[in-house]
Specification:
This protein has 261 residues and is mainly beta. 15% of the residues lie in helices and 53% in strands.
Amino acid sequence: MRDRAWLRWMAAGLLLYTSFMIVLLPASWIGWAAVKANIPATLFHPVGTVWRGSARATLHTPGHTRIASGEISWRINPLYLAIGRLGFDLEFLSDQIRISTNGKIGRSALDINKVQARLPVSTISLFYPLLANASLTGTVLLDSTALSMTNNSIVGAARINLESVSSSWLGRGNQGSYNINLDANGKVLHYSLTTSSGAIQIQGAGSWELFSTGKLDFDGRITAENGASPPSVLQHIGKTNPDGTRQVQWSTRAPFLPVSP
């Protein structure tokens, strides 16, 4: 009986020690996990634990082009392990970028309850080099309250505001703000684009086949303020309607660049 009691106490001690070590897993394990999961972020000087901590971080594109350096903080809720997921709260802050999000992540699924982001429009050109010569300036505001992703589907909605956008492609003085509404229902993302203010009025809609062909298309109209001619770069796109608007229809292929969950 004494031997059995000793074994029970030893098992209890091992369980307590293991639980203690798990609770106090160092924050450096987050950096290791980010590398293993191919998350486009490099962490430096992490402090805290796996479950709650912070670090200096550099965000980069999947092609390893640097986006920004700043402070990242996180909280991870292990209670969802019973259903094979982890709850998380993340925030990234730099001089020009702010991103905050929370949700749950599993082996092959990512559920985002909320994501809010503010970043320069020029960041887009880091993902799509075609825009590198567009000299983009302005601010992107992203807001989404429900988004679910797997390896081959995405469901949810989001709103993107492009504020005070200007580009060498649009000509001097043609600064404007634009609204983009996104609606994903599986393998296809549908979007609409409207001008909220500015000399170039754009209105249209399109779709993006994220997980199959990568086909991205748009169908809309462009009008210059007060009947003026659109910038030269737009005059070669589409055809002119009888009312003076420019009908624009185009299709291209753009790869989707998800973060592996």
